[in-house]
Structure to design on (98 residues):
C-alpha cells in the first residue's frame, strides 16, 4: 500500500500491518499517550515494524531537508503520527475479510 504524508513523504507499507495486533495496539497507544518519552519509545518501535532501516534513513532525510539539516523530535513524531493515521484510515476503509 502506497502512503503519502501531508508533508509529501511517500512510502510503501506492508498491508499485513493492518492485521497485526501488536502494531495496531502501539498505534493506538501512541495517539493516546500524553507522556512524550512513552510516545517516542512507541514511535521507534513502530518505525522498526513499518520500515527497513534504509527507509527509516530516507524518512529522516525527508524531515531534515526543510529544517537546516536538524532532525527535530517534534517533526519526526508528527511524520510518524501522520503515517499511522494514514494506515488506520486505510484499515478502516478496507473491506473486512471475514
Amino acid at each position: 500500500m502506497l502512503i503519502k504524508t501531508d508533508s509529501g513523504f511517500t512510502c510503501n507499507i506492508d498491508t499485513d500491518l493492518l492485521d497485526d495486533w501488536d502494531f495496531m495496539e502501539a498505534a493506538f497507544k501512541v495517539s493516546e499517550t500524553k507522556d512524550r518519552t512513552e510516545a517516542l519509545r512507541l514511535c521507534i518501535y513502530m518505525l522498526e515494524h513499518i520500515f527497513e532501516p534504509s527507509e527509516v534513513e530516507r524518512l529522516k532525510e525527508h524531515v531534515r531537508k526543510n529544517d537546516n539539516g536538524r532532525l527535530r523530535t517534534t517533526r519526526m513524531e508528527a511524520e510518524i503520527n501522520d503515517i499511522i493515521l494514514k494506515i488506520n484510515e486505510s484499515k478502516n476503509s478496507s473491506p473486512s475479510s471475514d
